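sorry to bug you again but im stuck and you know this stuff better than me. what follows is a protein written twice so to speak, once as letters and once as structure tokens for the fold. mainly i need to know what kind of three dimensional shape the backbone takes. anything you notice is useful, everything is just below:
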Amino acid sequence: MDSLLNIIFSVEAFALILVIILLKSSIKFVPQNRAWLVERFGKYQSTKEAGLNFILPFIDQIAADRSLKEQAVDVPSQSAITRDNITLSVDGVLYFRVLDPYKATYGVDDYVFAVTQLAQTTMRSELGKMELDKTFEERSQLNASIVESINEASEPWGIQVLRYEIKDIVPPRSVMDAMEAQMKAERVKRAQILESEGDRQSAINVAEGKKQAQVLAAEADKTEQILQAEGEARAILAVAEAQADALRKVGEAADTVQGQKAIQLDLATKAIAAKEAIARESSVVLLPEDKTDASSLVASSMSIINSLNKQQS
């Protein structure tokens, strides 16, 4: 009886262990951004995505584990010939991800190797369409062309190429020396052009300065002449006004008795002075017959003044 119980207990324990093993084998937890491909009897059965999944123990097998993350693959350096027959050494980095795990598993043997080789051949083909100078100037366009070509070819593999970046483009030493000489000549040319432009602008500035200086000097001379003429006109006007005022005052004074006497005295004095001057200048002096010549001269002068005053009144 005890042996029978032991046998039953052993069978139950074995069954329990077998159930645990079966459950463990049938329950699968797929990590995030991964896909497991399940085969049943060697044939594709299903694709298990992230989360809890179940398979049939001992019947279903995990045939492939594919990452759905973006992957970066280094494209080895290779030689390529440009359109103008220059050999270049080019390498790059390829970024892609798996869109269809089924195609990536059953459509190609090794999709990483395949897409890398495709990137190399596509890069050689695209570089052969461009000249050497364009490979440096239009690198972004070259990258975009390579990505487009690779995506067209890798579609049956379930691969999407996101971008391709060229790391280095190394031309031969002789070409590098020629490019360096060309760049040096271009720098010298630009320096000479800038220097000549500077000299030209300097000459223009000097000419403009002289022109402005002459214009300013002419304007200053003109202003000076105008001011001088205005000053002279004012001086002449002031002198004329002063003389007119003096004559007016003399006339007013001459219209009085005392003024008449003063004029007679002044005329007599000037007549005597004139006689003296004539006597000093000449050795012969003619004396008038009338001894009262000075008085007669004064009298005649006064008569002229009186007649003028009468005419004015």
About this structure: The first strand starts at residue 27 and ends at 30. The beta strands are 27-30, 34-40, 43-48, 51-54, 60-67, 71-81, 87-98, 159-170. The mean pLDDT is 79.
